[in-house]
Amino acid sequence: MVAVSLALGGCYRGAGALGNEGRDTINVLMVNNPQMADLQRLTAEHFTKSTGIKVNYTVLPEDDLRDKMSQDFSSQAGQYDVASLSNYETPIYARNGWLTPLGDRAARDTGYDQADLLAPVRKSLTAADGKVYAQPFYGESSFLMYRKDVLRDLGLTMPEKPTWKQVAALAAKLDGARPGMKGICLRGQPGWGQLAAPLTSVVNTFGGTWFTKDWQARVNSPEFTAATSFYVGLLRTHGQAGAPQAGYTECLNDMQQGKVAMWYDATAGAGSLESGESKVAGKVGYAPAPVERTASSGWLYTWAWGVQKASTHQDAAWKFISWASGKDYERLVGEQLGWSKVPAGKRASTYRDPEYLRHSGAFAAATKNAISSARPDDPGVQPRPAPGIQFVGIPEFSDLGTKVSHEVSSAIAGRQSVAEALDKSQRLAAEVARAYQER
């Protein structure tokens, strides 16, 4: 897909307190998510007018973004000053020396309020040296979204803390509850950030892991196999149409259109379900991510802003980040675009804001609880060699997770068995593990 590059600027108002920074133009590489599209719309009128700093956005789909960001940041070419990166890339990029530490700037910026950031999100953007290398734009965990009205009509009750076996039993009863309705939607589309994300959270709570603490691959272990067999079986029996091609967007659309009764996925989806465009607004309940052997299983993810170390516009880059990730920006979005569009999931103050709670009360507490209970350093029943809940925090995982997800998606499509898929995947994981064993 071709990049959309937009120059968003305002009239130059003079440097003022900014000194020469007022004449700066910064280049921002950004993922093409809806919240970022809103940011584009608001930049010229609100950021550029107040600072004199123009912003050139390059907007790309997630996979293309990561490719371009990796190329530019690894070479320190300096084409982009700021980029959208996640809590997966941040520690890796920081270790490689590609990012500027941002903690000191945040501490000096009295309007930013670093202490207001939710602890799990802030920690996920902190590298091994204890420094913060990115600032969050929005954060998310995962939970179970379900049709309250459909359960009520069938005399069913969602447990306060459901297990996956309880969810499967409910899916069987909800399948066909309304014409054309399926019991549940789960991602089946290949990709380390698509199918591999929810599947890995299920693996964790079933007692499995990709690797042991000493780098033994465990992708075809009994626990990993049990979790994957459960996931694949649930999708094949009670899942949405076209499951092997369905990712986050497809499941969101199915839930909004009333085609599925339950959906396990990112907490960020709740705002869209409760928006004016949704057919199910006001009809959805939110339960914690289902568990089996762990106390919780929700993942942790944040799209954040990182500054390339080679950037020659460090001050202007920070001013942009401070604005885009600040409290005032959240209020701006709520007042101008609607409170369901607020890029939430990162600040404690968001969940005390009366206006936000008035419009997002259906899912606000569930979202905050899910993020606060996420445990990236201890997501399963055994020690891990690297942090991460829905991913393994090593550079090789983007390739490994994607390849494994293709094998599992093939099993969802019925082209091979789960055992065949995981035996192939085990060989791939063992190659990665060997490299770490030899270090």
Features:
six-stranded mixed β-sheet; 41% helix; 9 strands; D-Maltodextrin-Binding Protein, domain 2; 17 helices; single chain; three-stranded antiparallel β-sheet; 439 residues; disordered N terminus; alpha+beta
Task: Describe the 3D structure.
The chain has 439 residues and is of the alpha+beta class. It folds into two domains: 25-139 and 301-372, Periplasmic binding protein-like II (D-Maltodextrin-Binding Protein, domain 2, 3-Layer(aba) Sandwich), CATH 3.40.190.10; 141-299 and 375-438, Periplasmic binding protein-like II (D-Maltodextrin-Binding Protein, domain 2, 3-Layer(aba) Sandwich). The protein has 17 helices and nine strands. It has helices at 34-51, 62-75, 89-95, 103-108, 119-124, 148-153, 164-174, 196-205, 222-238, 248-256, 270-273, 314-324, 327-337, 354-360, 364-372, 397-412, 418-437; strands at 4-8, 25-31, 54-60, 82-86, 135-140, 142-147, 262-266, 284-288, 301-307. It has a six-stranded mixed beta sheet with strand order 1-3-2-4-9-5. Strand 2 (25-31), helix 1 and strand 3 (54-60) form a beta-alpha-beta unit. Helix 8 (196-205) crosses helix 9 and helix 16 packs antiparallel against helix 17. The chain starts with a strand and ends with a helix.
